[in-house]
Every structure is written in structure tokens, then in C-alpha cells.
Specification:
SsrA-binding protein; RNA binding; SmpB; 158 residues; 4 helices; SsrA-bd_prot_CS; alpha+beta; Small Protein B, Chain: A; cytoplasm; 7-stranded antiparallel sheet
Length: 158
């Protein structure tokens, strides 16, 4: 019996599953990234960790913190690779203002959900949401278990 994993599009580099578990995501935005050459090469080989990443807004700009892009072993020797560095996100002014308003007034958090390729450029899908309480997480876990059990029952009855 082979386990089937959910299909992930070819252009997706990495998905932050933990973010959807920890936060109730209400809205999403797509942002570009300012990257160095070795980072792009590393992303092309699929090396990325978004689990500890978060978005910080300061000075009218958005930055991605904590996302790790480990360098390739064959990286250039004259470049000092820094895997976990602050990366600037490219957003329109209205989008930054909307994010800033949600974070300051409403107490929302901004987290990276996934990174993907779009027309040869790396893009980050960021989500705006509130942190879930412990009972919300338990309820989600119950729903997942019930869905899994329903699928098993339907599979065996067919």
C-alpha cells in the first residue's frame, strides 16, 4: 500500500505548514524578494526553511526574518554566505499600509506561508492572521482525524 501525498505544484519551493496550524489566516498577499545570486541557486535546488520565518514591518517597508536558505556546497568562495539573514519584501505602498494597519490596530500577525516561482522570480505568499488558541488547535486536529477516518471508512466500504 502506498501513501499518497497531496500534490504540490511544480513551481512551489517550500510550504510552511506550521503557519496554518498556529494562525487563523484571513488574507494572503504575494510579495517579491530581494535575493543574492547564491540564494537563487540554492532555492532552485529546493533548499529553504520557512518554519521559523516571520514578517516584520518597520520604516514603511516589510522584511522577512528567520527564513533559512542554506548555501550550496559548491557556492562561490569569495562570497560570505549568511543563511539566515533579513530579506526585504517587495510590496506596493497600499499593501504595506494595509499590513501595517492590521498589525497595529487589530493585533494580527504576518507570516510567510509558501515560497514559489512565478515567471522565473521567487515570490513569497504571506498570510495575515491571528494566533490560534490551544482549543482551536485541538478542534482542527479533531477535524483532521475525522476526515482521515471518513476516508478510511469509505475506502473499505467501496
Amino acid at each position: 500500500m502506498s501513501k499518497k501525498k497531496p500534490k504540490i505544484a511544480d513551481n512551489v519551493i517550500a510550504v510552511n505548514k506550521k503557519a496554518r496550524f498556529e494562525y487563523a489566516i484571513e488574507d494572503t498577499l504575494e510579495a517579491g524578494l530581494v535575493l543574492e545570486g547564491w540564494e537563487v541557486k540554492s532555492l532552485r535546488s529546493g533548499r529553504l526553511n520557512l518554519q521559523e520565518g516571520y514578517v516584520l514591518l518597520k520604516g514603511g517597508e516589510a522584511y522577512l526574518f528567520g527564513a533559512g536558505i542554506p548555501p550550496l556546497p559548491s557556492a562561490s568562495t569569495h562570497v560570505q554566505a549568511e543563511p539566515i539573514r533579513t530579506r526585504k519584501l517587495l510590496l506596493h505602498g497600499k499593501e504595506i499600509a494595509r499590513l501595517l494597519g492590521a498589525v497595529q490596530r487589530d493585533g494580527y500577525s504576518v507570516v510567510p506561508l509558501q515560497m514559489h516561482w512565478k515567471r522565473g522570480r521567487a515570490k513569497v505568499l504571506i498570510g495575515i492572521g491571528k494566533g490560534k488558541k490551544k482549543f482551536d488547535k485541538r478542534e482542527d486536529k479533531k477535524q483532521q482525524d475525522w476526515q482521515r477516518q471518513k476516508e478510511r471508512l469509505l475506502k473499505h466500504n467501496v
